[in-house]
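Quick question: what would this complex look like in 3D?
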Amino acid sequence: MTPRPDREPAAPVVQRIRIRYAKRGRLRFLSHRDFARALERAVRRAQIPIAYSSGFSPHPRISYVGAAPTGVASEAEYAELALQARMEPEELRTALDHVLPPGLDVIEAVEAQTASLADRIQVSHWRVELSGVEPERLRQAVDAFLAASEVPVERLTKQGRRSLDARAPVVRATVVGKSDIMSDMTGAAASDVAPSGESDTTCAILELVVRHVTPSVRPDEVLAGLRVVADLEPPVPPRVARIAQGALTEQGAIIDPLQADRDGALTGTPSA
Amino acid sequence: MSKGSIFHRLEPLLYQVQKPIQYVGGELGAVTKDWDSTTVRWCLMYPDAYEVGLPNQGIQILYEILNEQPDVLAERTYAVWPDLEALMRQHGVPQFTVDAHRPVGDFDILGVSFATEMGYTNLLTALDLAGIPLDAIERDETHPIVIAGGHAAFNPEPIADFIDAAVLGDGEEAVLEITDIVREWKAEGRPGGREELLLRLARTEAIYVPRFYRVDYLPDGRIQRVVPTRPDVPFRVHKRTTMDLDSWPYPKKPLVPLAETVHERYAVEIFRGCTRGCRFCQAGMITRPVRERSITTIGEMVDNGLRESGFSEVGLLSLSSADHSEIADICSGLADRYDGENVSLSLPSTRVDAFNVTLAEELSRNGRRSGLTFAPEGGSERIRRVINKMVTEEDLIRTVVTAYTRGWRQVKLYFMCGLPTETDEDVVQIARLAHEVIKAGRAATGSKDIRCTVSIGGFVPKPHTPFQWAAQTDPQTIDRRLKLLKQAINADRSLGRAIGFRYHDGEPSLIEGLLSRGDRRVGRVIRRVWAEGGRFDGWSEHFSFQRWVDACEAELTPLGVSLEWYTMRERDQHEVLPWDHLDSGLDREWLWEDWQNALAEVEQDDCRWTPCFDCGVCPSMGTEIQVGPTGAKLLPLISVRSGA
């Protein structure tokens, strides 16, 4: 059999750019696979000099860090793009943002100056909007949840039902008023986390900071925990948004995971 | 969110369904317009799931053409899966468009494209969810005009009760004419109401309005005649043909979905129509004559389509793509152009011909190598003469061996079972052919590492083909022949191991046969099946043969006809067929002659290369074959594309 001609080796990677992007509005229903496809196409439309893997079925070299679940909006998703020709990060950000559909927005791009981005992402800040739930009722449920040493909940996985502790990874859980949210959020982000219905609708908002653990505990598991400890059953599906991700300081603040790359860029550390 | 959006009511439901992204729209290329600043509003529907419907070329083309008109708005809707349907009913959420989430019932026109008859029950779901009465005659001026198009519209009789009108043939110009008629009628203050509008459509002689035709039956159940009920509508309704495809280079702004769909590629139709004359092929018969798009336009469309979409795959579509007069230059030109750019090019629908392997090789020169499929359609030389698929066994073996020697390890061979005059022997011959292919492949490559997959589809006789008079084979016979074939393939274990075997059982084909050649009485069956839960009949996991059989029993027996009567009965020359008043351009006498030639195993040439054989289409439709060569070449693009 005639062997297939050898392919030329893939062009080498000369630069890595890390981006923070948001998933907003209707596009909260995008799954991670859907997003990856949309980003790959946007990269082609924007003519970004992306590097490809070698082999007979070359793929663009884009890596993702833990994506928000389908149905959850996010202000803080991260990905890294490997390029075969250098590009100004801001130029890449504008070019990509321009060709992505409304609701997918590239907020920031920085050149990678450091090792693994994933190492600097340890917690997520989630905002959960519970329509039809009285804030006081939520407060009681959250108090009971936090007072428990362990809150076992069940999750349906491909392997069947498994039990996990929803309590341990929760660093912080607070109930806030609607007006507090409106004042500290702007633009599209506010519409994702603010109640969509009439202003007199009862609505409680839960702010969560949860450690990334395996198996993962996300707002769904915490809400299941509130059901377990306090019979809290929201009448309509809650709307969830990820507000931030990063490392946790001892004071409980979340450190922007791109900060180190930004600092590196300022001090002029050569790229890897 | 614009006026009329129901998204806030839909959103809470989306957390509870599978793949919610398919319902939110927001695709690249999608258009949302202000409702109040447009005068004619179309809702276009593909009556299947979003993942199948979104890539549909017909809908994308019409969507773009309509939205280019400043005062016209076009949005899209698809069939919702049963999980969302149940929630929509529970919460009173109507059928909606994915573009601006407007209720489908608010539009002027609902245009539904039927590529297959198996979408009929999904039409009823959409009408019902939209609050549109299922019976067209019960609709009033507040309801959209429901218009069917697509290949199945060449016999819309089974859905005649549910649609207001049907358009036969190419839609590009038809949608604009319909728009003009609706616009004028609305501007005049809707004189005469819905009836008057339908009458104006019917008077064009190119739009079929079933309510203006009466069907009389003979005592034995056959049709006596189909006659207009008014003097001012035509006796026959004619199909439309769009000539000069270069003037209609759509889609220009392809829809790029966020959800995963069945085809993730930029597709360009390189020609429309086919004159090969395969007797089973409805598409080849009803889309005549052949109209090629020029190599230059194809090159421009591919370049633009890739830039607009970001797709990494291009499909060169037609009914027999290698027949384009400049296909070699198109393939090598595109391969040169996208050298090193990770763009893969594919050429579906190829004929059994070594030339095709060369083309496929050219297209995969620098990208992914796509699979090769050849369609001899029939297992024996005899049956291939009956169906007019002029492929010899030598052709097939030479072609497949060429593919193996050029590095393909696997080819797919497509056949049909249940063809007119077919015997067990014709089907068993498929096994011998597959064995010969493997033997020759092993001899030529010296390797045992080659395979072929034999894929079998059930034959369904279709309207406007020479087989429209034929009896459909019963599912038991099909299933028995497939079992024989499987045994024959595995009779030689060494060869059988290298042959994959895929088939569908015969039952869905029988229902497709009922819906293809049915008349208005079949509408009752569709309605009953739907009422009893029938949905997504094109999906084996949703299709229930028993439900259709029971509905036929209940609805047809009192009328003295049956499922078997519609499907397994051979018609005689003078029987009035339900679609005889719908003119596809094909001369009925010629079709009958071709049917007799089929029975006599006489072949018919392709009129592209031989003199006209009077099928009747060109003179009756005022059309002509449009083929190259133009002599033009694809020039390299001056490109600033990624630094590869």
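Answer marked as accepted. Chain A has two domains: 15-118, 122-254.
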